[in-house]
Amino acid sequence: MRDLHVVVLAAGKGTRMKSAVPKLLHQAHGLPLIEHVIRTASALQPASIIVVVGHQAELLRAGTPAHDRMAFAVQEPQLGTGHALLQAEPFLRGARGTLVLLSGDVPLLRAETVRSLVARHEERGAAATVVTAALEDPAGYGRIVRDGDQLAAIVEDKDATPEQRGIREINSGIYALALEPLFDALRNLGTGNAQREYYLTDLIDVYRRRGLIVDAMIVADPREVLGVNSRRELADVTAILKSAKNQALMAAGVTLVDPASAYIGPDVTVGPDTIVQPGVHLEGKTVVGANCVIHAGVRIVDSTIEDGVVINNFCVIVGSHVSAGARIGPLAHIRPESRVGENAHVGNFVELKKTSLGSGSKANHLSYLGDATIGSHVNVGAGTITCNYDGRVKSQTIIEDGAFIGSDSQLIAPVRVGAGAYVAAGSSITEDVPAGSLAVARSRQVTKDNWASNKKIRDKG
Ligand code: UD1
Ligand code: CA
User: Fold this and answer.
1) What ligand has the least distance to the C-alpha of 24?
2) Do the domain assignments include residue 449?
3) Does the residue 343 lie in any domain?
4) Are residues 346 and 423 in the same domain?
5) Out of 72, 180, 350, 353, which residue is the most buried by the measure of CB atoms under 10 Å away?
6) CA 175, CA 5: separation in Å to the nearest integer?
7) Using one digit for the tens of pLDDT, what is the confidence trace for 141-158?
8) 189 and 268 in a common domain
9) Per DSSP, which regions of 210-261 are E strands?
10) How confident is the model at residue 461 (pLDDT cuts 50, 70, 90)?
11) Could you tell me if the CB of 56 is within 6 A of ligand 1?
């Protein structure tokens, strides 16, 4: 292979999205459209990736994850695809070899397909090789005009004759281009067309007249070159990506009870014999181990779930770690930087934030545990609350191994409950509780005998 460079066109407007957000930052299957394309580009290990931005350039730049060897070129104003590619020239001075041109709004293209494109392009010594597809409905696309077998020209829909509009082979907008003749040729493009734009597609005709080789590679699966121009197409593309991910998981031994309602992001991994019930969302960098059960309505983001964990219905887990054999939920909320130890239980209406719950510990009912370090085999009674915030600063609660916190207790941080200590139910703990002791922090009960019957008599009187 010769030197390889990738340019991604991303300066266009995306009018049909009807959005204040740049089109390429809309997410398909949990990743911005532009990220899908840049990942494909990265997989080719090119010498550089140049993203041409223009419309909403600053927003797009800010929303595009950083990648090695990626740079932004600015196209202002946007005068067409030929003009857009020309803006990459300063970044490619003196570069030789092959340029792959991708479109920011074509997220399904596989790196494998681009590799075949480059191989074919270089073997044939072509100046330009265009990726094409045969579509049932080619309306709107540039049409591939052939002279016998040979590629003759690309004619835009708006410039096509009625006869040319009948052609079903379309231009995907993806190309391999030899760098040597490219920029001089782009500079000489005209705008004598229906849209008064510099059409990159005119390059084909220009090269052919010069006797350079131009070629077209048709993709087997036209879905690979689907472009996203509207919300409907965004949903179509998302459905394809989601279904491919789910199929790969099932092939690897994961049970998806209802694949249509399993939303599992591109970077998520799930171990074998894990069962995913309907309506589950696994997002970001989530890792789920083997032999887990994830019940309906659970959402897990950027978290690690070890083997053999059961997550009951309607839990939300974000940025946290759940160790092997733990049981969570139903209706638990585990917020960032929490850690649930091996075989620990977190029950209904329990919220954890920046809290670690040691192995075998249980917080089964109605608790808020924030900024707390809880040892192993601790029993956190129903309704326990760590009062971690005094309106100004957050403070830590420490509960050591084997402690027992009676129901409906408040632990007013900073505070420590020592190993094996007991806190009586209904206590408001403001001072450290030494290991092995019992702390009772509630007022003593007063019982007035016959008070109610005496009241009746008083009331009548
Ligand atoms: C283009 C092709 C058409 C092809 C279709 C595939 C041309 C003239 N036509 O048409 O043959 O079938 O793509 O989807 O090339 N862009 C810029 N700057 C601009 C204009 C566009 O960066 O000034 C970018 C867009 O952001 C987009 C890509 O280029 O990523 C394609 O632009 P778009 O306006 O969608 O071109 P089409 O009219 O669809
Ligand atoms: Ca388009």
Assistant:
1) 1
2) no
3) yes
4) yes
5) 350
6) 12
7) 999 999 999 999 999 999
8) no
9) 214-218, 255-256
10) confident
11) no
pLDDT for 393-446, tens place per residue? 999 999 999 999 999 999 999 999 999 999 999 999 999 999 999 999 999 999
Number of Cβ within 10 Å of residue 1's Cβ equals: 11
CA neighbours closer than 13 Å in the CB half-sphere of residue 315 = 30
Residue 2: pLDDT over 80: no
Catalytic residues: 365
Find out whether the peptide bond into 222 is cis, omega within 30 degrees of 0: no
Q: How far is the CA of 229 from the centre of ligand 2 (A)?
A: 6
Q: Answer yes or no: is 241 within a domain.
A: no
Q: Is residue 375 part of a domain?
A: yes
Instruction: Give me the CATH number covering residue 62.
Output: 3.90.550.10
Q: Is 104 in the pocket of ligand 1 (CB under 6 A)?
A: yes
Q: Are residues 129 and 265 in the same domain?
A: no
Neighbour-count burial for 391-410, b at 16+ CB within 10 Å, e otherwise: eeeebbbbbbbbbbbbbbbb
- Which amino acid would we find at residue 370? G
Quote the tokens at residue 448. Answer: 């007035």
The mean pLDDT of 2-17, rounded to a whole number, is 93
DSSP conformation class of 443 = P
Q: Is the CB of 350 under 6 A from ligand 1?
A: no
For residues 53 and 12, give the distance between their C-alpha atoms in angstroms, rounded to a whole number: 8
pTM across the whole model:
0.93
Closest-lying ligand 1 atom to the alpha carbon of residue 156:
11
Which ligand does the CA of 141 lie closest to? Answer: 1
Same domain, 143 and 220: yes
List the domain range (segments joined by +) for residue 340: 253-439
Distances in Å between the alpha carbon of 136 and those of 37, 240, 340?
Answer: 25, 18, 53
Cα 452 to ligand 2 centre (Å): 81
Residues contacting residue 306 through CB under 8 Å, at least 6 positions apart? 289, 321, 322, 323, 324, 325, 326, 342
Rounded average pLDDT over 25-33: 97
Region 221-245: what's the mean pLDDT? 96
Q: Which residues, in sequence order, are bridge partners of residue 371? A: none
Question: Same domain for 260 and 221?
Answer: no
Q: What is the C-alpha radius of gyration for the chain, rounded to an integer number of angstroms?
A: 31
Number of domains in the chain: 2
Atom of ligand 1 nearest to the CA of 227: 14
For the Cβ of 138 lying below 6 angstroms from any atom of ligand 1, the answer is no
The DSSP string of 405-428 is: E-TT-EEESSEEE-TT-EE-TT-E
